[in-house]
Amino acid sequence: MAWLVVRLAITVSLLYTASAVFEDQVGKFDWRQQFIGKVRFALFDTHSQASKKLLVATDKNVFASLNSRTGDLFWRHVDKTGPEGHIDALLMYGQDAVVVVGNGRLLRSWETTVGGLKWEAVLDTGSFQAAALVGVQDFVKYVAVLKKSAISLHDLSSGSQIWVENLPDSDTVQYQTIYSGGNGLVFVLGFVPNSHIVIVEYKIEDGEIMKKKSVEAAWMSSLENSCAVISSGILLCVDQITQSLYTLPLQSAEQTEMRQIHLQTLDLEVASGFPPVLTSTQPNPAQPPLAEFFLQLSPDHHILLQLKDGLIAPLRDFNPSYLAAFATSGEKTVAAVMSPKNDTACSINLFSADTGRRHLDTTIIYHMDPNGGKPNRLYVHAFLKKDDSVGYRVMVQTEDLTLTFLQQPGRVVWMREEALADVVTMEMVDLPLTGTQAELEGEFGKKADGLLPMVLKRLSSQFILLQAWMAHLWKLFYDARKPRSSVKNEVTIDTLSRDEFNLQKMMVMVTASGKLFGIDSKSGTILWKQYLENIQPNSIFKLIVQRTTAHFPHPPQCTLLIKDKDTGLGSLYVFNPIFGKKSHISVPALPRPVLQTLLLPVIDQDYAKVLLLIDDQYKVTAFPSTKNVLQQLQDTASSIFFYLVDTSQGKLSGFRLRMDLSTELIWEVVIPTEVQKIVAVKGKRANEHVHSQGRVMGDRSVLYKYLNPNLLAVITESTDTHQERSFVGIFLIDGVTGRIVHEAVQRKARGPVHFVHSENWVVYVYWNSKFRRNEFSVLELFEGAELYNSTVFSSLDRPHPPQVLQQSYIFPAPISTLEATLTEKGITSRHLLVGLPSGNILSLPKMFLDPRRPEVVSEQSREENLIPYAPEMPIRTEWFINYNQTVSRVRGIYTAPSGLESTCLVVAYGLDIYQTRVFPSKQFDVLKDDYDYVLISSVLFGLFFATMISKRLAEVKLLNRAWR
Amino acid sequence: MATIRPLSLILSVLSIITLLWPQSGECNNGRRVGEAVDTDFSGFSVPLEHSFEVDDVPRFHLRGALQFRGGRENSVYLSQNQLSEKDRNILKEVAAVDGLYRIRVPRVSLQVDRQTERQSEGYLTAFVRACSLVESHLSDVITLHTDVSGYVIGISIVTIPGSCRGIEVEDEVDLEVFNTTISVVAPVTAPAPETAPYIERMEQEMEKKGKNPQEQKSFFAKYWMYIVPLVLFLMMSGAQDQSGGGAGGGAANGGGR
């Protein structure tokens, strides 16, 4: 009851901070895009001709159904991250999709139309090898799952286990493949490397081993990819070293040796160093596979072969060809082959599988994106047309994770950029000015060349402005007559210009696959994309805005530092963030591992900020490194400090730049790694503004904030993980002098720690291992009632340690990520944006996290608007800024100020991307949407005319009176 | 350069020897040494070194000795020598070129029972601008920071006042003796959410409210005898004057808050 009363009291006292989105505001300034990740399995629903379903399973542990006409999601299931939710296999039969999850831990069957779970079966432990549908008498009834040491058979309609059998000699034999041809038998194929193949035959009814044989195969090193079952149960293998094909009928008793067919006899040769790949097709699991198969001999050479009467004959040679795939519709099986056409396009053709003859008029031209990667997967959807010929559509996946769905004759039906499912880092860049604005800027930018030309120039630019204004008015008038829905104007790269309040920006997103995107923040349209090739999969990216759009006519400039995690070697990629074009600026070579980067406020003559890169010998490379920059660096060298963190030794060290761009060690702090290890170090954001220097207290005195721009928050976690002894350490260290400003230990706590460091406060979240709950803690630093030096802050001259206040709260939910809102001038109150694992983003007012919240309410604390202390932090659903637009697996939140002080732009990214605006102090500088302009203007005009009329009347009356 | 190299070699050899010394002693006597130190109450001492060079290449030499006393509070004393005539001049020169004054201590553990592993390699360094040290007449504040287990993790030095205004320090006497304040700071324990006092307070408030039910009455319940006639009066008189009624309602709302 007490809790209830208190909560009620808080609710009432905070009514004014409540903010939520109205129903009619939904989607007005926010958008969400949902992604799935890199496709590992894709199956088209061939159950009925009209079906639009495309089932996909991805490396992000997502199982989804896409609309193959639009590319939209029908439904999506996001499983756990990591190996627990890894999708091992996807099989489809009729309306059901069977999925094996978590290294063979779970077997699930999904209803494909609505995405409902039909059944789930927990399997025995053991690493997953293969799964297959098993049919009996033209009817698919079972699904077989092969583990490392066991095979189990499950009923397809209920999931119940029919039988499970241990595999013979599973400690020596590697079982990898499963095959069933619909004749009441299941074959399990295993092998002992470089020795022999083992074939075990199981009876479907009870799992009895019918036969077990081993066949000599000394050349074999792997079954997968290099072997396939074709025709009526004939095992076919290919070997690179002996340059041969091997065949073996699975059921024959007499043949105890694989028959060798030299590739030479077929006039074929496997490219050196390329493991050949065999691809067969089994259109119906209850029937044996086809006798035709693809053999890939080199990365761009496929050949369609046929096994007939024990002889292998080539049907068609595809040289060159990138990709090949089979597809079946009804009784017809076709093969689609992608071949290069010219440098920028590929052609996809359809061939009938049994003859290798080309179908007429089936060419699809696939234009390769010059800024994209090469195609690496081809999925074909074949269907029967009305005239019984085969039509098809294809989905192409490229290296840069673009899914393109094409239909004849090459029309792109839809496209998905799945690289965006893994955004690593991002920045928001202001859009450029419009042509007229730029013209005006240019006028002031240029040097004076006489009085008359200046006047003429001014007049011409004024005229241009007038013209633009007229055009704008005309457009407004024209648009006003049209219905609202049709006014939607497309955003293209040419029409990009900054809006009145700078609310529309360019989102530059860097993804883990090495693809960069430029996205319009207002609509979410991808305006440019650029794929960087040869990016190591575990690279670290750092995106730096060196020059903003403010320096017309110099184009804005972004620099991406790509660093290999293992070697530490880095490279720079410089580009224009608005158009995505690579700059032709010479980039310094980085022969040594980069330890730290530093963006200085020093600018060169082209207004680009100077980036310093520190290598492992503590040498500094400047970029750009023009004479001008080097001169400036020499002048300011003694005031350029930077810090390095070595987490393996727990060492933080500070360096100072020397004139000759070498560095000297000036301070060192070592936190012993035996006790605790550094998990994160964060400074403050460079573009952050703090409006007020202090806080006015209840007694009208001022408590000044300790606003140290060089302060670093260092978070450590104890090596001892026992719940009573584990702790989280918080160190506030000055990055220039190495002075430990504050040092605190949160007992009985452990990570993961999320924290935000801003203004004069640090907020961190940890897990309380004793009470098993998440807790928030806030640290605020104050200088006291007097400022030491109110004009300028210098770390070298601030001898008195700040006062530190701290308070902690219980947070009744787990947390994925934490960020703070940011506004142009820092007047607006701050909110914390908390990304929850549920996908919601909570906007928590910072006033709840205030260490000065009093235990007992007093007159003074009321005066200060302090909320009385309550140990539990409320979570209110109105505070979810993304209402029902949840962001799956939110990994980061990016905030950027807009031109309006009240408004902060927010982008949350994870599996999905969500962009919105937040107004932490409501829209105090904007008129409401439903503001009644007509009423106010009519009242004004009415009053104006009323005064005019009454004035006239009064005059007449006065005149009349005077005459009397 | 040639002279520096042998010097540093000698230094490193020396440091190895000093490192070896306590270890070899430990080997012979086992735990006894530690106990002896404990009862002796003399604690132990570590050197505090400083460096100020015109060419800004650190060459550390002894400034004084930090003496730690074991026990509950980490108390520390600094015994240091006066600056010699030569050092004073160098310091002033360094201050004139805006050089740095650096100090360092070896990494040690202040826990008495950890004497065996007390010293590990490496130093902790900090700096202050030499000019501010000169202008503050050698009055500095040195703080040693320890972690939870008593290891010294960082040292900091500030001068009071910390500014460099370019004031000439004429008097030689001002630069002879350090006026040092030294302290050891251990991490503070961050507060956990305070649930118990909060619940207690809530219960007290509830009790208070339970005792005098008079206060629990709502605003309307308390003042109905005034409100009803007022409303009746307004209804009677306000038939022709609508706006008056509206204003009255607004006022009542305001009162309700």
Automatic annotation (TrEMBL), chain A:
* InterPro entries, A to Z: Beta-prop_EMC1_1st, EMC1, EMC1_C, Quinoprotein_ADH-like_sf, WD40/YVTN_repeat-like_dom_sf
Main subcellular location: endoplasmic reticulum
The listed locations are: Endoplasmic reticulum membrane
Record-linked Gene3D superfamilies? YVTN repeat-like/Quinoprotein amine dehydrogenase (2.130.10.10)
Q: How does it assemble?
A: Component of the ER membrane protein complex (EMC).
Keywords attached to this Swiss-Prot or TrEMBL record, sorted alphabetically, are: Disulfide bond, Endoplasmic reticulum, Glycoprotein, Membrane, Signal, Transmembrane, Transmembrane helix
Give me the Gene Ontology terms describing cellular component.
EMC complex
Question: PANTHER family, per this entry?
Answer: ER MEMBRANE PROTEIN COMPLEX SUBUNIT 1
A Pfam family name for this chain? EMC1_C
Signal peptide boundaries: 1-20
Family membership = Belongs to the EMC1 family.
SUPFAM superfamilies listed in its UniProt record: Quinoprotein alcohol dehydrogenase-like
Q: Quote the protein name from its UniProt record.
A: ER membrane protein complex subunit 1
**What membrane topology does the UniProt entry give?**
Single-pass type I membrane protein
Any one biological process term the GO annotation gives: protein folding in endoplasmic reticulum
List each copy of the ER membrane protein complex subunit 1 C-terminal domain by range.
758-963
Q: What range(s) does the EMC1 first beta-propeller domain occupy?
A: 20-418
TrEMBL record, chain B:
Q: Which Pfam families match?
A: ECM10
- Keywords for this protein: Endoplasmic reticulum, Membrane, Signal, Transmembrane, Transmembrane helix
Family statement = Belongs to the EMC10 family.
Q: Which PANTHER family match?
A: CHROMATIN COMPLEXES SUBUNIT BAP18-RELATED (PTHR21397), ER MEMBRANE PROTEIN COMPLEX SUBUNIT 10 (PTHR21397:SF4)
Protein name, per record:
ER membrane protein complex subunit 10
**Assembly and interactions?**
Component of the ER membrane protein complex (EMC).
Main location per the UniProt record: endoplasmic reticulum
Look up and give the membrane topology term.
Single-pass type I membrane protein
Q: State its location(s).
A: Endoplasmic reticulum membrane
Q: Does the keyword Endoplasmic reticulum apply?
A: yes
* Annotated signal peptide: 1-27
The record's Gene Ontology cellular component field reads: EMC complex
